[in-house]
Amino acid sequence: MVFSYLVTQKNGQQHTVLLDDNSLAINKKICKLNNGYYGIHHGGRLVLLHRFLMGLANTTEGFVDHEDRNKDNHQMENLRMATKQENAWNTGKKENNKSGSIGVFNLKRKKNGKSFVAYIRDNGGKRAYLGVHATQREAEIAYDMACWNLRGDKAVLNDSSNVFKNMLCIE
Predict the structure, then answer these.
(1) Tens of pLDDT, residues 63-112
(2) Are residues 39 and 101 in the same domain?
(3) How many CA atoms lie within 13 A of 76 on its CB side?
(4) Would you say 171 and 135 are in contact if contact means Cβ atoms under 8 Å apart?
(5) Domain that includes residue 22, residue range
(6) What is the rounded CA–CA span in Å between residue 2 and residue 74?
(7) For 70, phi and psi rounded to 5 degrees?
C-alpha cells in the first residue's frame, strides 16, 4: 500500500513524499533538502531518505537510483541499487537540449539530404556515432536501440509511447 507523507519546510512550502506502508515505521522527521532530495536525521547526521530506505544509511558505498527520476517517489519498487555510471545514465534530457530528444542533434546544414545525427556515450564514456538520419524519429530509434544494447533495463529511451519496448517485448 502506498502512503503520501506531507513534508512542510521552514518557509511553509509543502511537499508530498510517496512511501510504502513499511516505510512509515521510520518514526523520524523527513525534511526536503535544497537539491530536491529528502533527508532524515539518523545516528547524529543527515542521511538521504532513499539511502536510508535501502539500508545504506551508515555507508558511503553504493548508489540508489530513483527509477522514474521522481525525487518524491520513495516506494521500494521505484528505488534500485545502481553503480555510479548507471545512476548517471538515468538523467533523461538535459535542460539545454534543443532537439527534444536524448542523443539526437539537429544539423545546421543538411548532409546528403539528412538533418539529424545520433550519438551515444559508450560504457567507457566515449561518444559513439550512430549515423545521420532523415527524420528526428529515425535518429531517436537509432539512439534507443544502441542505448538498450548498452544499458539493458537501465536504459533511458526517447520512446515515451513505449513502441520500441513493445517491439522488443520489454516490460
Answers:
(1) 998 888 888 999 989 898 988 888 877 776 777 777 888 889 888 777 66
(2) no
(3) 10
(4) no
(5) 2-87
(6) 10
(7) -100, 110
Q: From the CA atom positions of the chain, what is the Rg in Å?
A: 20
State the total domains in the chain. Answer: 2
Count the residues in the chain.
Answer: 171
CA dihedral 158, 163, 168, 170 (to 10 degrees): 80
The residues that bridge with 65 in the sheet, in sequence order, are 80
CATH code, domain with 101: 3.30.730.10
For residues 2 and 18, is the Cβ–Cβ distance under 8 A? Answer: yes
Q: How far apart are CA 153 and CA 82, in angstroms?
A: 12
Shared domain check, 100 and 79: no
Task: Say if pTM beats, i.e. exceeds, 0.85.
Answer: no
